[in-house]
């Protein structure tokens, strides 16, 4: 019915990076809405301890997307209605300190992975579905010392906008959530100095007007909102406590 949010009950949701952090919170929140949950991740052991149907694979490979979509269809006897591209990595180095291999790894996970999974989603013969990408404020503003990460999230934002236009005729919405600092494993990873790890929350708080870092469940609620709204597409929803408003 016009003006109403999507009824998500019984729909199949595929979530990459679903074994921990934001991805796992998304899985739990969509499950509460009565959705069929299918999570994808690299760590098979971590996936096994969740309550959800899962598939272990590397999002850097297009074959993982192909096989994951096939497994999800077989598991629930229906196509994937909602895709959440949550898998991501960070590399903390300026441009001159980023090797070819490190650059390629970040691009493979943060850009190629969402592209492969979104492409498989688009090949389905469905209407009124949704793709939600997990981006970052680093895709909107620069951050010294995060050259590869910022570039990858900027590319993800453009993929989001482009696919929103391509899939609009099928009433498929494509959006992204752009969080700032999140209290999740990524925030504490890849620091070369242990003291930087210990003070990372305190340092981030100095630039967040609202005075707190986001919790994973806050990002998950934004993802659920974007997946539910049929008239919102091509948007990058910032969730950063006012960081980019300054």
Q: How is the topology of this model organized?
A:
Layout: E1 12-16, H1 21-32, E2 36-41, H2 44-48, E3 53-56, H3 62-76, E4 82-85, H4 100-123, E5 130-134, H5 147-167, E6 173-179, H6 194-198, H7 200-205, H8 216-228, E7 236-239
Parallel strand pairs: 1-2, 1-4, 2-3, 4-5, 5-6, 6-7
Jot down its keywords:
246 residues; alpha/beta; 7-stranded parallel sheet; 8 helices; globular
What do you see in this structure?
- The protein is α/β, with parallel strands linked by helices and about 250 residues long.
- About 40% of the residues lie in helices and about 15% in strands.
- It contains eight helices and seven strands, in the order E-H-E-H-E-H-E-H-E-H-E-H-H-H-E.
- The chain has helices at about 20-30, 45-50, 60-75, 100-125, 145-165, 195-200, 200-205, 215-230; strands at about 10-15, 35-40, 55, 80-85, 130-135, 175-180, 235-240.
- Helix 1 crosses helix 8 (about 215-230), helix 3 (about 60-75) runs parallel beside helix 4 (about 100-125) and helix 4 (about 100-125) packs parallel to helix 5 (about 145-165).
- The radius of gyration is 17 Å and the shape is globular.
- The mean pLDDT is about 95.
């Amino acid at each position: 019915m016009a003006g109403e949010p999507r009824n998500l009950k019984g729909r199949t949701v595929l979530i990459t990076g679903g074994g921990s952090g934001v991805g796992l919170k998304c899985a739990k929140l969509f499950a509460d809405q009565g959705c069929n949950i299918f999570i994808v991740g690299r760590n098979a052991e971590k996936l096994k301890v969740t309550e959800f149907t899962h598939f272990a694979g590397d999002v850097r490979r297009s074959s993982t997307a192909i096989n994951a979509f096939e497994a999800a269809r077989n598991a629930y006897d229906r196509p994937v209605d909602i895709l959440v591209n949550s898998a991501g990595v960070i590399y903390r180095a300026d441009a001159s300190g980023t090797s070819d291999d490190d650059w390629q790894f970040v691009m493979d996970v943060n850009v190629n992975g969402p592209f492969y999974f979104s492409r498989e989603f688009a090949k389905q013969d469905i209407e009124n579905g949704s793709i939600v990408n997990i981006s970052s404020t680093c895709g909107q503003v620069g951050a010294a010392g995060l050259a590869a990460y910022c570039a990858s999230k900027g590319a993800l934002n453009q993929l989001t906008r482009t696919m929103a236009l391509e899939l609009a005729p099928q009433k498929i919405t494509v959006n992204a959530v752009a969080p700032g600092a999140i209290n999740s494993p990524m925030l504490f990873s890849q620091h070369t100095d242990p003291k930087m790890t210990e003070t990372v929350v305190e340092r981030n708080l100095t630039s967040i007007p609202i005075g707190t870092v986001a919790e994973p469940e806050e990002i998950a609620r934004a993802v659920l909102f974007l997946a539910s709204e049929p008239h919102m597409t091509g948007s990058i929803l910032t969730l950063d406590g006012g960081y980019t408003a300054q």
